């Protein structure tokens, strides 16, 4: 459709009450999700939008996670926008710095940086029924918006465990997502708490420079070999100059990854059994000590938690300057960590590789819907759920990007992000075509969608694999992952299904 182009909100913005700047679409966050939405809006000829970003540049998790060894565990050609392929990746699995460079360059090339307000954190977003708009307060001005698009991401708020005495530690403390590059860890005694994805990447790099590394493991992960390689010059040249070649490679990677879902979904359990044997061999070839080998071998089925990839993790654990502790941490003292058996481990620095607030992000508590409750309150009491991961009953004119049950255990989150952007664009077109001023997902439609989703979830390895993971919320439900193929999600979000929503229109201001 053809859009009438309103004035840019940053040059001719209207104001409504209390000096609020009025904007058609307000996006919160500029990682892959928020930036992708901004680019697609601009490509569609929509100018009345603004992106709020609390940091000073785009990038999201790839801006924040600069710890040693940070890299992607999805192949580079698939971990990028479909509308902005990058023929210049240096490796099959991109390091953090290259991904952040890609995002910066993509934002510049798309010309959307002037649609961003950086160093601006959203403090509160409140639905105002009278104006049928969201009133958004930030650290850098207040706004009124027709449509709110939270694109804050699941890996945005670092999670620190509640360990007695943590505040008493006098040495250096950092979370992998907030790495302090001013701290010199060479020759130091360092504690690495956690054995998830960031620990798997940072640990081997730390072990090369520290005096001694003590790894505190709560649950052993399954770690597959990382089939990473540098792209030779001739291959990079071909991606740059042979039309369609990179897109063909991307398609091949996509369908190869999609086949993994046959195992995760329970349709073909033999696939995961074969993968578990490969992971077991990965342990056996690197670790000869029987006690250590037993300590790092999980007692749950592969796939139940996130499958990690590394060629260095197990060899690192076998190093002379690395020790593994599997007892729980009882307390932290000023110069040491004490495990539950009373052993005192003297350390100079502590690195928390303890993940993020995925199902309980503080940002959820800053968005208040029609009944005066925040999204955090609703999800805390009723369980985290949304319609197609995007719309939440009681929160009109709000579409999340990769909300609940949109995460993946096998493929690229960029595919899911672009699916939600398609849904957003279709919603905006529908609003324009039908004169809709207010839309809200019907509670019954949301409930049906989630009942079906959780029924499908029961058959997956995430429910049957015998583990407890960060995929689960406090109610024990998997509210993080999508239980099917990604092309199913793409089909489900290809258009805005307005019949699932109650709506108000310009001419009637009544609920249909």
Question: Would you kindly provide a written description of the structure presented here, covering whatever features stand out?
Answer:
The chain is α/β, with parallel strands linked by helices and 512 residues long. It has two domains: 291 residues, FAD/NAD(P)-binding domain (3-Layer(bba) Sandwich); 187 residues, FAD/NAD(P)-binding domain (3-Layer(bba) Sandwich), CATH 3.50.50. 30% of the residues lie in helices and 18% in strands. The chain is built from 15 helices and 20 strands. The strands form five sheets. Strands 1, 2, 3, 4, 5, 6, 7 and 18 form an eight-stranded mixed sheet that branches. A five-stranded parallel sheet has the order 8-17-9-10-13, with helices on one face. β1 and β2 form a beta hairpin. α1 packs across α12 and α12 runs parallel beside α15. It is globular, with a radius of gyration of 24 Å. The N terminus is likely disordered.
């Amino acid at each position: 459709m053809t859009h009438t182009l309103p004035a840019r909100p940053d040059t001719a913005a209207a104001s409504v009450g209390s000096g609020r700047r009025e904007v058609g679409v307000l996006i919160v966050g500029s990682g892959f999700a928020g930036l992708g939405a901004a680019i697609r809006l601009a490509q569609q000829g929509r100018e009345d939008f603004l992106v709020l970003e609390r940091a000073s540049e785009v990038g999201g998790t790839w801006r924040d996670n600069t710890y040693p060894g940070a890299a992607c565990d999805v192949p580079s050609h698939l971990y990028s926008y479909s509308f902005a392929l990058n023929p210049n990746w240096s490796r099959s699995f991109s390091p953090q710095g290259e991904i952040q460079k890609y995002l910066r360059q993509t934002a510049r090339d798309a010309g959307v940086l002037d649609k961003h307000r950086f160093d601006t954190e959203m403090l509160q977003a409140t639905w105002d029924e009278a104006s049928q708009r969201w009133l958004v307060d930030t650290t850098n001005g207040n706004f009124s918006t027709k449509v709110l698009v939270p694109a804050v991401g699941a890996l945005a708020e670092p999670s620190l465990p509640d360990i007695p005495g943590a505040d008493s530690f006098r040495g250096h403390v950092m979370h992998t997502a907030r790495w302090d590059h001013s701290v010199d860890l060479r020759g130091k005694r360092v504690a690495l708490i956690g054995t998830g994805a960031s620990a798997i990447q940072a640990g081997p790099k730390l072990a090369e420079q520290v005096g001694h590394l003590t790894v505190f493991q709560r649950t052993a992960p399954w770690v597959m070999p990382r089939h990473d390689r540098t792209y030779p010059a001739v291959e990079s040249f071909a991606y740059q100059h042979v039309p369609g070649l990179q897109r063909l490679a991307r398609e091949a990677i996509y369908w190869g990854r999609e086949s993994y879902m046959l195992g995760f979904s329970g349709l073909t359990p033999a696939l995961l059994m074969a993968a578990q044997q490969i992971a077991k061999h990965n342990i056996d070839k690197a670790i000869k000590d029987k006690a250590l080998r037993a300590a790092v071998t999980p007692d749950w089925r592969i796939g139940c938690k996130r499958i990690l990839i590394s060629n260095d993790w197990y060899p690192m654990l076998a190093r002379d300057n690395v020790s593994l502790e599997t007892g729980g941490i009882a307390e932290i003292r000023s110069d040491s960590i004490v495990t539950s058996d009373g052993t005192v481990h003297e350390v100079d620095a502590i690195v928390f590789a303890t993940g993020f607030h995925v199902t309980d992000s503080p940002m959820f508590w800053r968005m208040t819907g029609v009944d005066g409750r925040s999204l955090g309150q609703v999800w805390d009491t009723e369980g985290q759920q949304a319609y197609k991961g995007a719309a939440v009953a009681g929160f009109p004119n709000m579409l999340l990007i990769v909300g609940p049950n949109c995460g993946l255990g096998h493929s690229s989150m960029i595919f899911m992000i672009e699916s939600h952007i398609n849904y957003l664009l279709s919603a905006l077109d529908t609003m324009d075509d039908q004169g809709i001023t207010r839309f809200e997902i019907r509670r019954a439609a949301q409930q049906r969608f989630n009942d079906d989703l959780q029924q499908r979830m029961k058959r997956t390895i995430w429910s049957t694999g015998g583990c407890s993971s960060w995929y689960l919320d406090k109610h024990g439900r998997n509210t993080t992952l999508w239980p099917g193929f990604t092309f199913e999600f793409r089909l489900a979000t290809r258009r805005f299904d307005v019949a699932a929503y109650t709506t108000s229109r310009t001419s009637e201001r009544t609920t249909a």
